[in-house]
Amino acid sequence: MKILVTGFDPFGGEAVNPAYEAVKLLPKSIKGAEIITIEIPTVFSRGAERVEKAIVEHKPNAVVCIGQAGGRSCISIERIGVNLKEASIPDNDGNQPADEKIKEDGENAYFATIPVKAMVNNVRKNGIPSHLSYTAGTYVCNDVMYSLLYMLDKKYKDIKGGFIHVPYATEQVVNKANNIASMPVETIAKGLEYAIEAIIDNESDIADAMGTTM
Asked: Angle 135-136-140 (CA atoms, 0-180°, nearest 5)?
């Protein structure tokens, strides 16, 4: 088995992006599966293009894209990508779309095809906070998630895919407000490793109820 894992470069004035910093710490093999890691740009469309280039090059069985969600307190396994580009800040190329579709011929939304609930459970079982998330936002993270699931639906039907959001790294919040959540990069990396273990171990997802009330 071969799993492609991507992480974004820094954006929004940050010096680092914990997504790629954690991805760089992943082992080359997890439970016998080969782990391929790449950095992608925090730029609408270009990030997704880099993911597809890596899919063509490496022919993985699964793709997991990792992004920073500053303010979240845990490893957030995303379930849904939506067909919307709406940016409150410019991306790293200065693009700031509003009310735009990602794909004109795409569905309104696509669900992740990796076993998201099993991933949450395995991260928690190993002592790291994790939750299932039903919104990947409308910034570049969602753009990459939606575009990945679109291309898997249209062209690469044998590949599973999804997205994980991670908190700020501890060093990023040193000068931020005292209630901003963070997590050491090493802990984030272990959380990603446990999530990937669940992809390897689960052909289909578990049936636990993880919905929200709001």
From this structure: 150
Residue 58 and residue 55: Cα distance in Å, rounded?
5
Q: Is pLDDT of 153 > 90?
A: yes
Tens digit of each residue's pLDDT (9 = 90 or more) over 69-107: 999 999 999 999 999 999 999 999 999 999 999 999 999
Helix axes 185-201, 116-125, angle to 10 degrees: 130
Task: Clarify whether 78 is annotated catalytic.
Answer: yes
For residue 95 the two structure tokens come to: 């693009």
**1 Cβ contact partners less than 8 Å away, ≥ 6 residues apart:** 32, 33, 34, 61, 62, 200
d(CA 135, CA 210): 14
Mind giving me the DSSP string for 117-129? HHHHHHHHHTT--
Query: Is 39 one of the annotated active-site residues of the chain?
Result: no
The whole-angstrom separation of Cα 67 and Cα 166 is: 6
Residue 58 falls in the annotated catalytic set: no
* 3-class DSSP state of 20: helix
Q: One of 21, 65, 74, 165 is an active-site residue; which one?
A: 165
Tokens 């289909």 belong to 204
User: pLDDT tens for residues 170-186?
Assistant: 999 999 999 999 999 99
- Whole-angstrom Cα distance, residue 77 to residue 197? 14
